[in-house]
Amino acid sequence: MIRLSASEMAAKLANGETTSVELTQAHLDRIADVDTDVHAFLFVDTEGALAQAAAVDAKRAAGAKLAPLAGVPLALKDVMTQKGVPTTAGSKILEGWRPPYDSTVVTHLKNNDIVILGKTNMDEFAMGSSTENSAYGPTHNPWDLTRIPGGSSGGSSAALAAFEAPLAIGTDTGGSIRQPAAVTGTVGVKPTYGGVSRFGLIAFSSSLDQAGPCARSVLDAALLHEAIAGHDPKDSTSINAPVPQVVAAANSGDVKGMKIGVVKELNGDGYQSGVRTRFEESLELLAAAGAEIVEVSAPNFEYALAAYYLIAPSECSSNLARFDAMRYGLRVGDVDGASAESVMNLTREVGFGREVKRRIILGTYALSSGYYDAYYGSAQKVRTLITQDFNKAFEKCDVMVSPTCPTTAFKIGEKSNDPIAMYLNDIATIPVNMAGIGGMSLPSGLAPEDGLPVGFQIMAPAMADQRMYLVGAALEAALLTKWGAPLLSQAPVLAGK
Predict the structure, then answer these.
(1) Active-site annotation, residues
(2) Could you tell me if 325 and 463 lie in one domain?
(3) How far are the Cα atoms of 165, 168, 204 from residue 152, in angstroms, in the given order?
């Protein structure tokens, strides 16, 4: 049962073929069986999940009208607050903290009767591309336990690939939903900025952060997308507009007459041979489905990585100033006679990891007197140029596409001492966040040289997220016909468990 899609599980629940308690318990058993190897979860809420499931079953038995995903389990990234449930953002500085309120995303999940299994591992404060920066140890890729599952939402993507959950929530600041999806053979969507509320999302970079759905199919992602999206007055950046009709688009998958723009700057040197091979094959399948393939150029994408690593650290240096050991979270050195400053210094030294400290220092420097205009101000100008590149390209096409990542999953520890090499993993995903538009990654096959998953990225204009789902559904259907079975059925690791 755990290997079904979320939509298939929902159908079985609606038809009375199973109950939410049975389905939830099956996933809890799976977590108990394999998560020692995968380490996708930081906290498993066994009691809370079963109580939620029992409540859904009671509603169904009483004849209540339920949401499409009611009773289906989900894994929640540990950066979203959930009342009374440990929430750490992958950091020692929040170890043991239990929020007094729900994030808006969690509120939507509960209103849709989606069962929350627990909180998933992540790079500390979402800073990373491999989940190696978690204060609680790395998550392992179910395709090869010696490799990374992507980051920062690596716990969520690994939970999907290991069949520990059919749905998950991730957050995407520079690719942290799409990159993990690519290297684990799953589907990840970064909605238009403001399309999903950020209230209760522990902030890394406020102008870039965006929560979104993670799933094993395009339709499942669409169902979850519509469940969590919508205007929220608690979030000043939330868009007050109707939610794009992504479920209808995912059910359609009709790309006849659509123009698909291949980004010239995101498919050249530095991309693994197998990644390019699978990308070209996907383009051929979309053309066969009736789409027109055109080339588009975005010359300022060249500067996106550098601009991002000035804007994001600058905003993180401001956001993380709240972790001062005075109000909540970890407190070190609180002895008689200790000053507030010494307690703060000692707590931050122990509580923050190396990558978080690196970005705080970089961001504080970029915002400092005499350097603000040269660094942060210039990066914001580049951001405007990137947005203009997207606008010009979308005049020629309906969506833009590229490989999601330059390579397949690398070995744990391979790049942990080389931050520049680590940052380059996000070279194709960062422009989407800089412009605030929507992006999706779905599996396009296995790289022939290592047999690991490759991701195909689709980018759509702001509030036109349904276009991503149209193209994603078309490609997924064509690939399923080609493969004969979902890609995850080919995963060699954990297959016998």
Answers:
(1) 77, 152, 176
(2) no
(3) 18, 13, 11
